[in-house]
Structure of Transposase:
Amino acid sequence: MPVKIVAALPEPEAPETKSPPPLRKKTSIVTIELGRGRRIRVESDVDMEALGRILDVVERR
């Protein structure tokens, strides 16, 4: 069989690799007992200012 030599084919482009999503620090659930059978459960990394506003509203009722 005859052989024909040609220039090498270009390397195929590597598929685009996406960077992995940023690691989220491990959180846990915190339970806040409010009394009279009421409790609030939030993640340990809750926004403290927002939680303060929520607690203000809950305690006024």
Notes: Residues 1 and 7 are 19 Å apart (CA to CA). The longest strand covers residues 29-35.
